[in-house]
Specification:
The structure is a single chain. The chain is mainly beta and 262 residues long. The protein folds into two domains: 140 residues, Sandwich (Jelly Rolls), CATH 2.60.120.1100; 92 residues, no CATH class. Helix content is 6%, strand content 42%. The protein is built from one helix and 20 strands. The strands form five sheets. Strands 1, 4, 13, 17, 18 and 20 form a six-stranded antiparallel sheet that branches. Strands 2-3-19-12-16 form a five-stranded antiparallel sheet, with no helix packed on it. It is elongated and about 80 Å long. The two termini are 36 Å apart.
Length: 262
């Protein structure tokens, strides 16, 4: 058996891509496998900081513009991972500074159907039609919203604040798993179960086993992907990636090859 402990923390013989979600490690000495036997890999544990941005300039959903008494105000949210309460907190600071009213615009969630409604305490127009408006991720259509004092408007669709549904861990030296209908090298699928900035701890009771295909492993690459197979951004600030690690076991397979003669 060959245990593997891989992390995206910088170190020797390691290449970490800018987004921090891909790590290539050179193994010294390399793992040498018996070509007459079959081997498999299991992911036993993973620790991943939950830091995937849901509001950012890159996602084109980080502004909120509104008009009060004919004056337009434009708010820009800093890139980050926001809950509905986080959005309200930032919006309250902005309206308190610019309109002396911390409760002028507030969003409320409807847990029964995952929609959102917006409530205002003064007549105003919210420009939801703008291409980079935060209103889209909250389920509102791209139509400007005009409200009077004490009025509210419901979103037409469900909010999509939790855009990351699952984290896929892939490894370039394994095969025989499937991603949708395609053969893949995915070792595990991890569902986020912590609050923003928390650390996801994954310890499966029944880790899947994927076949190892090279006889000699001198270099190995692990990737973190979202449910669409797109690399995660583990470096949202652009300065230093949030840390993640995986613990894997490489071992001889008990699978017996059967040859069927016709």
């Amino acid at each position: 058996m060959f245990p593997l402990f891989i992390t995206n923390q910088s170190g020797p013989n390691k290449n970490i891509f800018n987004n921090g979600a891909s790590v290539t490690t050179t193994l010294s000495p390399p793992i040498i496998l018996n070509p007459n036997k079959k081997y498999q890999m299991r992911l036993l544990q993973a620790a991943i900081v939950y830091c995937q941005e849901n509001i950012s300039a890159a996602l084109n959903n980080n502004t909120l513009s509104y008009s009060v008494d004919g004056v337009t105000y434009n708010m820009t949210f800093a890139d980050g991972l926001y809950s509905l309460q986080d959005i309200n907190n930032q919006l309250s600071l902005f309206t308190n500074t610019n309109n002396e009213d911390p409760n002028m615009i507030q969003f409320y969630g409807n847990d029964t159907n995952s929609t959102v409604y917006v409530y205002v305490d003064t007549p105003l127009v919210i420009f939801a039609s703008e291409s980079n408006s935060i209103m889209s991720i909250l389920g509102f259509s791209k139509t400007d919203i005009t409200l009077g004092t004490g009025q509210y408007a419901n979103s037409e669709a469900r909010a999509n604040l939790n855009s990351l549904q699952t984290i896929l861990v892939s490894c370039d030296v394994v095969t025989d798993s499937y991603f949708n209908s395609q053969n893949s090298n995915i070792l595990a699928s991890i569902i986020p179960n912590v609050s923003p900035a928390g650390t996801i701890i994954f310890m499966p009771f029944h880790p899947i086993r994927c076949r190892l295909f090279p006889n000699q492993i001198s270099q190995i690459t692990f990737n973190l992907l979202n449910q669409e197979g797109v690399a995660l951004n583990m470096n949202p600030t652009g300065t230093k990636p949030e840390l993640w690690s995986v613990t894997c076991m490489t071992e001889e397979s008990d699978e017996t090859e059967k040859i069927i003669k016709r």
